[in-house]
Specification:
heterodimer, A: 398 residues, alpha+beta, Butyryl-Coa Dehydrogenase, subunit A, domain 1, four-stranded antiparallel beta sheet, 11 helices, 45% helix, B: 378 residues, Butyryl-CoA Dehydrogenase, subunit A, domain 2, 3 domains, 10 strands, 51% helix, globular, binds flavin-adenine dinucleotide
Chain lengths: 398, 378
């Protein structure tokens, strides 16, 4: 058992840390988040942050050097996530491009596709979104109805996508469409298209979440056009592409766990600073009990992650344990913010500029509900854990 | 980064597992319930031969000088088999405090025999109708020349009627918050000791109430400094709780395994019950509890071995979480087994009772949470 990092890894960390100190937007490290989501320039700001990352060679460290990456090891990726959380770095606008589409293209894309997309994913010039979910297909993606029909030398796409994160700022979409439906196996007959969002047949409409923010969208496809060259993998074999893509998204959960660790520290600070009837919240015996419980389970989930990471490092590829990490971090994040609001007593209902402490707690509480739904719901994660780790029988209907 | 037990530690686990498989795992505890200790004695001797009792005794005193992490697989396997006895108190408590605070004479007297399996130790702390507050210690030891004279009653002493030596918490001076308490090594052959067996609902455990009447013991039997016993006890409890975490994880592991197995073979409404999500997700909740418990336990024992800053918080918080999780999953396993779950025949009940037995052993969940909060400087 050994929690230390190698010399090479420590070197990587310190180099990245100094790079961040020099390159983060002005005032960022002092906690002055120079720009907020309400600001119209927010998305441009994120694009320029990605450009900065690219110029420093830190946009996509896990990619092969040949494509502009650093061939980073899994441990270096973990360190990268830790340092980004530590510096509270701006959100990565092209998460889908960097962590999902890019590596998949590098693995199974054609030379032409690599030529066309890779560089622009790195620079942030082309932002990607993921077009999977539809009104009638969420947990069960085999139910997608968006269709692509071959017409002469191009494909005509019709249907509707929903919950498309970044859809309103994206230039490209990694889109699932049905290309044939006759087979008994429902996951056959799906094809992945690389679709241009800036075309007449694509219309994006905002969806406002309960926190008042706009992160995701509906995307309507009315005779949208794609060519053969825009297909990744084989026609009708999109499921394999999706699986390949999943294997590349290696450290996102780690990032969420490090974030939770930071958020919990913020909560401890809050309970020290906020007083009720002249006494800091953390001095209340009930608060102490509950806070230790949350502390313990957050530590536990992070330690689970390290244990699973060890397994992945030894085995060479990730397994179903990732579902447990995802389940735990998302459920716990919800609980931590729920408690943060509850702690503020009835003043917890105060919002925005009237918030008792900082509207951050109220906003994050509302925002946290998406975590146990997006990326596969908690119930679906439990099915995976049950079937793939515990060997329980598969659900009926699947 | 490597957060796993070493290959040697896992190998040692496999050999203990095999050894317990050969001796029928929980059937050893079941024999004890029936009053038959033949298999327990045999297995206990076998564990000594495998080196378990001497693992953490220093080489100078005929042990192997290994660390807390090496004990993890041992205690997990003991927990899985629900082995009765005081290996927890002997290995998890007596050895580390003897090593740290014992005089040369005390070490020489006890450690080689503990390693050889010929001395069994237990902890005598609680008193009738009292809690774990240091102020409630009422057993006294008054000085008379080079001796201490002990009077009072201790309750709920594990194996109190069969162990060789009590590590006894006594008051040697007036004081508050632990001041004036001492730990005394008291061999059971000393006269003036009356033992009353206490019935425990975890029938695999043997408990006794012990009355001390003018028991004379040499001052040289005080473990650590006189009147500072509370601090020695706290140090010992860190080790004991580290070991206890592993014991509980071992039990939890077996519960999850047997429940998942049952859910794949029991058929109702034409399908294995494990296909119903109420059952399936229930077992997943048990599994996540188990894995979280295991991670916390490994870390706690690593912290113990390497003496890192967050050692206390790691151990106390693990203890609190795992105690509750053990009860939770033991209870859930009964529900998932249906009618057979509530029978004496199935092991579910044995695990539930053991989980409950540990719940408030040497401190409650609430107390360990508060200790965690203090350790974190909250
Ligand atoms: C913040 C956020 C961002 C998202 N971003 C994107 C994006 O960028 N691109 C994209 O394509 N999608 C995105 N999604 C969509 C997300 O993938 C889906 O919401 C998710 O897969 C669930 O699908 P659904 O909403 O249709 O719910 P449903 O599948 O209808 O589920 C409804 C309820 O039924 C339960 N359920 C469903 N199937 C089972 C089962 N087999 N067993 C037990 N319970 C079951 C679910 O757990 C849930 O509680 C995002 C969602 C969120 C919240």
């Amino acid at each position: 058992m050994d929690f230390s990092f190698s010399k090479k890894e420590e070197k990587f960390r310190s180099t990245l840390r100094s790079w961040l100190e020099e390159n983060l937007p002005e005032g960022w490290l002092e906690g002055k988040n120079v720009i907020t989501k309400e600001n119209a320039e927010y998305w441009d700001f994120l694009r320029s942050w990605q450009k900065t990352l690219y110029e420093g060679g830190y946009a996509a460290i896990a990619w092969p050097e040949k494509y502009g990456g650093r061939n980073a090891t899994l441990m270096e990726e973990i360190i990268y996530q830790q340092e980004m959380v530590r510096a509270n770095a701006p959100q990565l606008i092209n998460y889908v491009g960097i962590h999902m589409v890019g590596p998949t293209l590098i693995q199974i894309g054609t030379e032409e596709q690599k030529e066309k997309y890779i560089e622009k994913i790195l620079t942030g010039e082309e932002v990607w979104c993921q077009g999977y979910s539809e009104p009638n297909a969420g947990s069960d993606l085999t139910a997608i109805q968006t269709s692509a029909v071959k017409n002469g030398d191009h494909w005509v796409i019709n249907g509707q996508k929903v919950w498309t994160s970044f859809g309103h700022v994206a230039d490209k979409c990694f889109l699932l469409a049905r290309t044939s439906s006759s087979t008994e196996k429902k996951h056959k007959g799906i094809t992945v298209f690389l679709v241009d969002m800036h075309q007449e047949g694509v219309e994006t409409r905002p969806i406002i979440q309960m926190d008042g923010e706009h992160d995701f969208n509906e995307v309507y496809l009315n005779d949208a056009i794609a060519s053969d060259a825009d297909i990744i993998g084989e026609v009708d074999e999109g499921w394999k592409v999706m699986i390949a893509l999943l294997m590349h998204e290696r450290t996102g959960i780690g990032g969420q766990l490090f974030t939770l660790e930071q958020q919990f520290k913020d909560l401890v600070k809050m309970t020290n600073e906020v007083e009720e009837d002249g006494k800091p919240l953390i001095k209340d015996p009930f608060v102490r009990q509950k806070m230790v419980d949350l502390y313990t389970r957050s530590r536990g989930s992070l330690l689970n992650y390290y244990r699973n990471l060890t397994t992945t490092l030894k085995r060479g590829y990730p397994g179903a344990e990732g579902s447990m990490d995802k389940l735990l971090v998302s459920e716990l994040t919800k609980e931590v913010f729920s408690y943060a609001v509850s702690l503020q007593n009835h003043q917890g209902v105060l919002w925005k500029e009237d918030a008792l402490v900082d509207t951050y707690w109220q906003d994050k509480f509302l925002h946290s509900f998406g975590m146990t739904i997006g990326g596969g719901t908690s119930e679906v994660q439990k099915n995976t854990i049950a079937e793939r780790i515990l060997g329980l029988p598969k659900d009926l209907g699947r | 980064m490597d957060f796993s037990l070493s290959e040697e530690q896992e190998m040692f686990r496999r050999s203990i597992r095999k050894f317990f498989d050969q001796h029928g795992q929980t059937s050893i505890a079941r024999d004890v319930v029936k009053g038959n200790t033949t298999s327990l004695d045999k297995v206990t001797r076998g564990l000594v031969e495998l080196g378990c009792t001497g693992m953490t005794v220093s080489e100078e005193f005929e042990g192997s000088g290994l660390g807390s992490l090496d004990l993890v697989p041992v205690f997990e396997e003991l927990g899985r088999a629900l082995l009765p006895g005081t290996l927890l108190e002997t290995i998890g408590f007596a050895i580390p405090i003897l090593e740290k605070y014992g005089t040369d004479e005390q070490k020489q007297k006890y450690l080689p025999e503990i390693a050889a399996g010929t001395k069994k130790m237990t902890l005598a702390w609680l008193e009738p109708k009292k809690g774990y507050n240091p102020d409630s210690v009422g057993v006294t030891a008054s000085a008379e020349g080079e001796s201490l004279v002990i009077n009072g009653v201790k309750s709920l002493i594990p194996d109190g009627d069969v162990v060789d030596t009590y590590i006894l918490l006594v008051r040697t001076m007036d004081g508050k918050d632990g001041a004036g308490l001492s730990l005394v090594l008291l061999d059971r052959e000393d006269t003036g000791i009356t033992v009353r067996h206490q019935k425990c609902f975890d029938e695999t455990q043997r408990l006794a109430e012990v009355t001390f009447e003018n028991v004379r013991v040499s001052k040289s039997q005080v473990l650590g400094a006189m009147n500072q016993g509370w601090d020695v006890l706290q140090e010992g409890l860190l080790h004991l709780n580290g070991a206890l975490c592993s014991l509980m994880v071992g039990g939890m592991d077996r519960i999850v395994e047997m429940t998942a197995e049952y859910a794949t073979i029991r058929v109702q409404f034409g399908q294995p019950i494990g296909r119903f999500q109420a059952i399936k997700h229930g077992i997943v909740d048990m599994k996540t509890d188990l894995e979280t418990a295991r991670s916390l336990s490994y870390y706690a024992n690593w912290a113990l071995e390497t003496d890192v800053d967050d050692k206390k918080a790691a151990i106390y918080s693990a203890r609190a979480f795992i105690t509750e999780a053990y009860i939770r999953i033991a209870s859930q396993s009964i529900q998932i087994h249906g009618g057979i779950g509530v029978t004496e025949e199935l092991d579910c009940q044995l695990y539930l009772k053991r989980a409950r037995y540990y719940e408030n052993y040497l401190g409650s969940v609430q107390q360990y949470r508060e200790k965690t909060a203090l350790a974190l400087n909250w």
